[in-house]
């Protein structure tokens, strides 16, 4: 069922496209122009989403070539196809005019930018990359701008939304953390139509390798951290780092903001090809902006930062050093796009929580928290943070690992959970095409036989959450980790409705454990 409070999803393309001539596109892409100078009004990779007047991009894939859908693209109104030599004949047979280039994936981004009138050049853009923290930072930046009355938008894991200059909210349906380049430039063009001033975007390592973010030169890019993840795609941590480093080159950013709490960040600060400002939460770190003192306040914290202009105090609405780092990153990004001063500090402090990120579902007598932590490092941060919250007795974690993703991190996640929690309930995350039992077994393989934690394995995420609630007592904290604000669970080829927050809240209510919870609006 759709949420009546959310805006109806809109297309990832402007209402009034600027368009471009096929001959001009051919010159820009270094391709032979078609015989007729057609006008292109949109760009897409998906033959099912072709609209009349589109340039359809037929790319080679791991198992098949997109050109096999040329007839479908033609029937839906494509006027031109962009492809490589291996896809040219099928497109020609379908009657499509052609632009043939050696690397159509890279060329797609340039074509999309040109057709949409290079929208990224006409609004302020912020790009955030890192293993953890991308969603938190971009969300806090956007919520702060909303509070200041600026028209702002965000593109990322939790979806694509923006507020126009009239104060109306909009949503655009997207699938990936960083959309494919035709969607991305279409989204930016639509934001520009509605006079959005600042667009904040999560930039994944996949996107940088696969040219999804090409032709966007961010006004400022931010690096939060790097820890093991996505090695199924990158192969090594070195390749993973190199993918992130690309964002800090003149082709992608004018300047950078880099967290130097880890060695990867320190290395990036040295190797970045654009000017960078550094920040750190370790008080003895060498950085332009250093957190000197953190004071826990309820479920958040107030902290002092020393920078080039002296000391200042900021507030994070979420607990833990990593959210202190995210709040500081947001403040530095806002300053980089011209938003600074006491009103910004106040708005930043009131920016609120981030859906699915250390989200408080219940306060007492049992504290319930849902977090997106799906790497060993993120899980360690979440558990360490919750252990330090005043009044915590036993710490219970419900966790698992996603299928069809980096398998090497599964044992490490199990080890972290058993080392830092009192009770571990190993269950299913998004199994996708894998056998859930095999994933659980891999997670459990990292838990030493000598662990002091009580360990359970439960088939079915709902049943695991219910078990955690039955095992909890007054002043215990339950962390449901891995899926955050996701509202579906991918099992096989089907996405089943499933929201950790609703399941945990319902289980606690049935158990009589919601107490003085006043967080119903923080979904």
From TrEMBL:
PTM-bearing positions, type N6-carboxylysine: 244
Binding residues for UDP-N-acetyl-alpha-D-muramoyl-L-alanyl-D-glutamate: 45, 47, 177-178, 204, 212
Molecular function terms, GO-annotated: UDP-N-acetylmuramoylalanyl-D-glutamate-2,6-diaminopimelate ligase activity
InterPro entries: Mur-like_cat_sf, Mur_ligase_C, Mur_ligase_C_dom_sf, Mur_ligase_cen, Mur_ligase_N, MurE/MurF_N, UDP-N-AcMur-Glu-dNH2Pim_ligase
Record's subcellular location: Cytoplasm
Post-translational modification: Carboxylation is probably crucial for Mg(2+) binding and, consequently, for the gamma-phosphate positioning of ATP.
Limits of the Mur ligase C-terminal domain: 356-484
Pathway: Cell wall biogenesis; peptidoglycan biosynthesis
Mur ligase N-terminal catalytic domain segment(s): 40-113
EC assignment: 6.3.2.13
UniProt-listed PANTHER family: MUR LIGASE FAMILY MEMBER (PTHR23135), UDP-N-ACETYLMURAMOYL-L-ALANYL-D-GLUTAMATE--2,6-DIAMINOPIMELATE LIGASE MURE HOMOLOG, CHLOROPLASTIC (PTHR23135:SF4)
Family: Belongs to the MurCDEF family. MurE subfamily.
Stated role: Catalyzes the addition of meso-diaminopimelic acid to the nucleotide precursor UDP-N-acetylmuramoyl-L-alanyl-D-glutamate (UMAG) in the biosynthesis of bacterial cell-wall peptidoglycan.
Protein name, per record: UDP-N-acetylmuramoyl-L-alanyl-D-glutamate--2,6-diaminopimelate ligase
Organism, scientific name: Brachybacterium sacelli
Gene field: murE
């Amino acid at each position: 069922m759709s949420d009546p409070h959310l805006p109806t999803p809109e297309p990832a393309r402007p209402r009034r496209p600027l368009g471009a001539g096929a001959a001009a596109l051919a010159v820009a892409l270094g391709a032979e122009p078609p015989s007729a100078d057609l006008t292109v009004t949109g760009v897409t990779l998906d033959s099912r989403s072709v609209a009349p007047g589109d340039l359809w991009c037929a790319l080679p894939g791991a198992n098949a070539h997109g050109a096999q859908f040329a007839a479908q693209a033609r029937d839906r109104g494509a006027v031109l196809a962009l492809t490589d030599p291996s896809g040219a004949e099928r497109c020609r047979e379908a009657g499509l005019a052609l632009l043939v280039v050696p690397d159509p994936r890279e060329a797609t981004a340039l074509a999309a930018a040109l057709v949409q009138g290079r929208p990224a050049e006409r609004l302020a853009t912020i790009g955030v990359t890192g293993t953890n923290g991308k969603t938190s930072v971009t969300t806090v930046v956007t919520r702060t701008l909303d509070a200041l009355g600026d028209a702002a938008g965000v593109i990322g894991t939790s979806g694509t939304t923006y507020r126009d200059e009239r104060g109306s909210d909009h949503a655009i349906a997207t699938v990936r953390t960083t959309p494919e380049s035709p969607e991305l430039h279409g989204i930016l063009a639509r934001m520009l139509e509605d006079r959005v001033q600042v667009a904040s975007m999560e930039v994944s390592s996949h996107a940088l390798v696969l040219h999804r973010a090409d032709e966007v030169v961010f006004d400022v890019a931010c690096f939060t951290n790097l820890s093991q993840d996505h090695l199924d795609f990158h192969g090594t941590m070195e390749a993973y780092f190199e993918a992130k480093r690309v964002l800090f080159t003149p082709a992608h950013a004018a300047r950078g903001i880099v967290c130097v709490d880890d060695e990867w960040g320190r290395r990036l600060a040295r190797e970045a090809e654009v000017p960078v400002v550094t920040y750190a939460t370790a008080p003895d770190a060498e950085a332009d902006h250093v957190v000197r003192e953190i004071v826990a306040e309820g479920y958040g914290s107030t902290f002092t930062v020393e920078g080039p202009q002296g000391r200042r105090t900021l507030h994070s609405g979420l607990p833990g050093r990593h959210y202190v780092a995210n709040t500081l990153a947001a403040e530095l990004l806002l300053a980089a796009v011209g938003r600074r001063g006491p009103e910004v500090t106040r708005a930043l402090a009131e920016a609120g929580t981030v859906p699915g990120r250390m989200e408080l579902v219940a306060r007492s007598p049992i504290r319930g928290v849902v977090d997106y932590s799906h790497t060993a490092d993120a899980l360690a941060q979440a558990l360490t943070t919750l252990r330090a919250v005043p009044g915590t007795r036993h710490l219970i974690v419900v966790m698992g690992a996603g299928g069809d993703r980096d398998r090497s991190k599964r044992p490490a996640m199990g080890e972290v959970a058993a080392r830092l929690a009192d009770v571990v309930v190993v269950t299913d995350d998004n199994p996708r095409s894998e056998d859930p039992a095999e994933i659980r077994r891999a997670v459990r393989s990292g838990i030493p036989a000598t662990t002091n934690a009580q360990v359970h394995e439960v088939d079915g995420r709902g049943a695991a959450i219910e078990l955690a609630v039955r095992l909890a007592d007054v002043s215990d904290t339950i962390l449901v980790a891995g899926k955050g604000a996701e509202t579906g669970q991918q099992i096989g080829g089907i996405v089943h409705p499933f929201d950790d927050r609703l399941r945990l809240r319902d289980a606690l209510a049935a158990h009589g454990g919601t107490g003085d919870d006043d967080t119903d609006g923080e979904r």
